[in-house]
Amino acid sequence: MQTDGSGGDMRADGIAKAEGPLDEEKGMELERLQEEVCKYKEQLDALQRELDESKNRLRYMQADCENIRKRSERQMEEARLFATMPLLCDLLEVVDELELALRSASGPEQHGTVLQGVEMTLKKMKKILEKHGVSPIECIMKPLDPEKHMVVSKEERDDLEEHTVVEEIRKGYLLRDRVIRPSVVKVSVKPSRSTKPKEEN
Hints:
By secondary structure, the protein is α+β, with helices and mostly antiparallel strands. It has three domains: 8-82; 84-132; 134-191, Head domain of nucleotide exchange factor GrpE (Nucleotide Exchange Factor Grpe, Chain A, domain 2). The protein contains three helices and six strands. The strands form two sheets. It has a three-stranded antiparallel sheet with strand order 1-4-5. A three-stranded mixed sheet has the order 2-6-3, with no helix packed on it. The radius of gyration is 47 Å and the shape is elongated. The chain starts with a helix and ends in a 12-residue tail after the last strand.
């Protein structure tokens, strides 16, 4: 039995026409899928950026919390160390009175026992202050330090550098490394050199 050649061509054309729309649909579906993939990738990138920003904010917050914790601990420690400052300043007034009594003491021998008692009390008071971190400011023959010294008098001295402490009028004290009372001092200044004009003969 012979096959009609024209019939075979018609079937081939029909198959080609049927496959054409299928390829077009597949292409459109592929484009749609690619667009969705791009869209999801953009969303994923945006989420990743938000996650990175959240991590950075969290790190900053943790650093801030750590700084606040350290600052609070430091403030609490300072408050503990210097809470007794008002009391210690009052005790220093007592020390001043005792030292003044010893310096100005003179008279009959019967006063010796009283002076000895004052001296013992003064030593005990100084030990108590030292135990709580109070120490006197060393100032004699030291350069003037405005943070530690309060100048109330000056003395002309040619043998010293200007603004050298030459006399301690009232002791100053430190509570650990903080000045709780400055030293009241006298400092040196250079003599004023006034040159007189020569007299004419």
